[in-house]
Amino acid sequence: FSTAIAITEQPVSVSVPVGYSFKLRCRAQGRTSLQYQWFCQHQSDCRLIPGATNQDLPIVAEQTQLYTCRVNDLHRNAVFSDWVKVEVHQCVARGLPPRLWQGEPVIVLNPSEQRVEVGQPLQLQCAAMGVPAPSYQWYRNGNLLEQQKRKKLWITHSKVSDSGTYLCCASNSRGEHWTNAVDVHVGEILPPAEHFQLFHLVFVLATGKIALLVGNNRYQHHPNLLAPVRDVFELSHLLEHLGFQVVSLLD
């Protein structure tokens, strides 16, 4: 009967830099003495790990692999632990954790700014190291996106309403870390020549010659942004050069 063995502590997935040393743990209880055997899977190849017959499996991270532990007793009952993923980051020079790293999330890939045409797919990506492996939650304009809980944010057919400022929170039992905030614009993408014509129409045909610029930098439920301050500064100089009287407001 398989119920004769109960796994009391499952191994957990981790996300670590190459060369990192750690142990996967599995604990079980049974009616007789128990034996352990670890297996690993890379791509489609699943194999027994020779000599890996202890409750703990020491690992020096080399490549991303899946692991499981088989526990059996003297009556030929056997159960397998959950499959767990050891994700190994090969190139994380700037995100490398400090020597006293305790496994809290460390961002190693930030999303990048996007300009997407309406109806086209929108994709943002981030990655973080952590022990245990972090979970992810995306936000737009400070609002939680209920369905976006993976490293990769994917919207199949983007809409104008998907425009905004995005960022992701990576968290585990040891803490949380936020990615950089990035702006996403969804709309009709004009060719460069049409961009210039539109710019000409807006500024040359403007009649009031008064421009009001508002840049919000601080938000109550959102990390501070840097771009608005810079944008207001640069736009005010441009507009003044074109003969506008500029009123700039920050926050």
Based on helices, strands and strand pairing, what is the structural class? Answer: mainly beta
Number of helices: 2
Which whole number gives the mean pLDDT?
87
As a percent range, the share of strand residues is: 35-45%
How is the main sheet built? Answer: 6 strands, mixed
- Could you state the order of secondary-structure elements as H and E? EEEEEEEEEEEEEEEEEEEEHEHE
Count of the separate structural domains: 3
Q: How helix-rich are the residues, as a percent range?
A: 10-25%
Top-tier CATH class of the largest domain: Mainly Beta
List segments where confidence is low: pLDDT < 50 over at least 5 consecutive residues. none
**What is the fold named in CATH at topology level of the largest domain?**
Immunoglobulin-like
- For the record, give the distance between the C-alpha atoms at the N and C termini, rounded to a whole number: 67 Å
Radius of gyration: 26 Å
CATH architecture level-2 label of the largest domain: Sandwich
Domain Caspase family p20: 207-251
Keywords: Disulfide bond, Immunoglobulin domain
Pfam families: Ig_3 (PF13927), Peptidase_C14 (PF00656)
Organism: Chloropsis hardwickii
Overview of this protein structure:
- The chain has 3 domains: 6-89, Immunoglobulins (Immunoglobulin-like); 106-187, Sandwich (Immunoglobulin-like); 209-250, no CATH class.
- It is mainly β and 251 residues long.
- Helices cover 11% and strands 43% of the residues.
- The relative contact order is 0.13.
- The protein has 2 helices and 22 strands.
